[in-house]
From TrEMBL:
Belongs to the ROK (NagC/XylR) family. Gene3D superfamilies: 3.30.420.40, Winged helix-like DNA-binding domain superfamily/Winged helix DNA-binding domain. SUPFAM superfamilies: Actin-like ATPase domain, Winged helix' DNA-binding domain. InterPro entries: ATPase_NBD, ROK, WH-like_DNA-bd_sf, WH_DNA-bd_sf. It comes from Streptomyces argyrophylli. PANTHER family: BIFUNCTIONAL UDP-N-ACETYLGLUCOSAMINE 2-EPIMERASE_N-ACETYLMANNOSAMINE KINASE (PTHR18964:SF149), ROK (REPRESSOR, ORF, KINASE) FAMILY (PTHR18964). This is ROK family transcriptional regulator. It comes from the Bacteria.
C-alpha cells in the first residue's frame, strides 16, 4: 500500500486533520492545530504540490465581501483511493468497498461453508475482486475477526472459527497482492467511530457493543487504548448481579449472562421450552408477555449498570452503544436510562449515550478504516 510517506509528523497532523474533519479553511486549520499562518503555509505547500491536499471551492455566499484573499478550504479527494473491509462471522463473511473517508460505495456478503483458513482466504480474495469492480484499484484490505489478533496479521485465537495462530494476513495478501491488516472486530469498530463516527474530535470516548457477546473499547487522548484482554470475554467476568442467571457462556450474573443475545434466548428457552428469536423476545416484551418482559427488564437494568460504571470510572465525553442487540433500547430504553441515573451521583452530568443500530456491514466498514489508517499513518502495528 502506497502510504502518505515521506511526511514529517507536523505535515502528517495537517493531512489527518483535513482527512478526518475537512474541508477546512486555512484559518480553521491553523486554529485547530495551534499553528501560525506562516507555519501552516509552510506545512501545506508540499501537501498541495503532491496532490495529497487540494483547494476546494471557495466558501461563502455571493453577498459576502471579497476583500483580501478568498477563503479556499483544503480537502482531500475522497474517491481517489478505495479500500476493502471484511467482517468474518461463524457462518458468513461481510464485505464493503469504501473511499478515503470510509463512505461505503459497495457491499457484499457470502456464506461461509467452512472454517478452513485457506478456504476462508480464498473466499475473501474472491469477494475482493467482486467488490472492486470498476472502482480505483483498492489500496489495501482490513479484516475484522472476533478473537485475539497479534501484530495485526495473525489470528492468535478465535473460538467461533476454531482458529489458533492462523496467519490470515499473509494468506489473503498472497491471494490478492494487496496489503492486509487484521484486527479484533471491536477494536476495528472503535477505530472507525473515532476517526469518522460518533467519537470524531472527542478526547475521551467509549464504545460498548451488545450482540453475540459484549465488547468494549476506550479512547483516551483521541486514540484507542489497546489492551491484552481484547476478546478474552471481559463481559463474562464483569459481574452485574451475583444472584443473576447462569448461562453456559458466562459466570453467574455477568454482563454476558444478562445481556448477550444467546444468553437472553437461552433464558427464555429454559423457561418456556421454546427456541425464540431475539427480535421476537423484544416484541413479546413490548406486548407485555410476562417471561419476555422479565428477561428484557433484567437485561435493561444490567445495561444501565454497565453504562453507569463505565461513565463513573472512565469519565468519557460520550458512550456509543452499538451492535446487533441495541434494539433493547427501543423496548426498554426508559429502564436503561433510569438505572444509569440511579447508579450515578445525583449531581453528575448526564451520560451522553448514543445508540447506533449496527449490521455486519458496519463492522466491515470498521475493518476498512484499518486499511485507511495504514495508508495515512504508514504503519501496520500499534
Amino acid at each position: 500500500m502506497t502510504s502518505w510517506l515521506p511526511l514529517s509528523p507536523a505535515e502528517r497532523s495537517v493531512a489527518i486533520e483535513v482527512l478526518v474533519h475537512g474541508p477546512l479553511s486555512r484559518t480553521e486549520l491553523a486554529r485547530r492545530l495551534r499553528l501560525s499562518q506562516g507555519s501552516l503555509t509552510r506545512l501545506t505547500k508540499p501537501l498541495i504540490e503532491s496532490g495529497l491536499l487540494v483547494e476546494a471551492a471557495e466558501t461563502g455566499g455571493a453577498g459576502e465581501s471579497r476583500q483580501g484573499r478568498p477563503s479556499r478550504p483544503l480537502d482531500v479527494v475522497a474517491d481517489s483511493r478505495s479500500f476493502l473491509g471484511f467482517k468474518i462471522t461463524a457462518d458468513r463473511v461481510y464485505g464493503v468497498l469504501t473511499g478515503l473517508r470510509s463512505e461505503v460505495t459497495g457491499r457484499l456478503d457470502r456464506p461461509l461453508a467452512t472454517h478452513d483458513p485457506d478456504a476462508v482466504a480464498a473466499l475473501l480474495a474472491e469477494m475482493a475482486t467482486g467488490l472492486a469492480g470498476r472502482h480505483p484499484a483498492p489500496a489495501g484490505i482490513g479484516i475484522g475477526v472476533g478473537g485475539r489478533v497479534r501484530e495485526r496479521a495473525v489470528v492468535g485465537e478465535s473460538a467461533f472459527l476454531g482458529w489458533r495462530d492462523v496467519p490470515l494476513g499473509t494468506l489473503v495478501r498472497e491471494r490478492t497482492g494487496l496489503p492486509v491488516v487484521v484486527e479484533n472486530d471491536v477494536a476495528a469498530l472503535v477505530e472507525a467511530e473515532t476517526w469518522f463516527g460518533a467519537g470524531r474530535g472527542l478526547d475521551r470516548f467509549a464504545v460498548l457493543t451488545i450482540g453475540a457477546g459484549i465488547g468494549y473499547g476506550l479512547v483516551l487522548g483521541g486514540s484507542r487504548v489497546p489492551y491484552d484482554e481484547e476478546d478474552r470475554g471481559f463481559g463474562r467476568h464483569w459481574i452485574i448481579d451475583p444472584y443473576g442467571p447462569l448461562t453456559p457462556e458466562g459466570a453467574r450474573g455477568s454482563a454476558t449472562s444478562l445481556l448477550s443475545i444467546p444468553s437472553i434466548r437461552h433464558q427464555v428457552r429454559a423457561a418456556t421450552g421454546r427456541d425464540v428469536g431475539y427480535e421476537e423476545i423484544l416484541a413479546g416484551a413490548a406486548a407485555g408477555d410476562p417471561m419476555s418482559s422479565r428477561v428484557v427488564d433484567e437485561a435493561a437494568r444490567a445495561l444501565g449498570i454497565l453504562v453507569a460504571q463505565i461513565a463513573n470510572f472512565a469519565m468519557p465525553q460520550k458512550i456509543l452503544l452499538a451492535g446487533e442487540g441495541v434494539g433493547l433500547m427501543d423496548v426498554a430504553g426508559g429502564t436503561v436510562r433510569a438505572t444509569i441515573r440511579s447508579h450515578r451521583h445525583p449531581l453528575a452530568a448526564p451520560v451522553d449515550l448514543e445508540t447506533k443500530v449496527s449490521d455486519f456491514h458496519d463492522w466491515a466498514r470498521g475493518a476498512a478504516v484499518l486499511a485507511i489508517q495504514v495508508l495515512v499513518l504508514g504503519r501496520t502495528g500499534d
